[in-house]
Amino acid sequence: MGWLWAIIVGFVLGLIAKALIPGKQHSPLWLTTICGMLGAIAGNAIARGFGVESTRGIDWSRHAFQLVAAVIIVFLVDMAYMATLGKKKHAA
Question: Does the pTM of the predicted model rise above 0.70?
Answer without folding.
Answer: yes
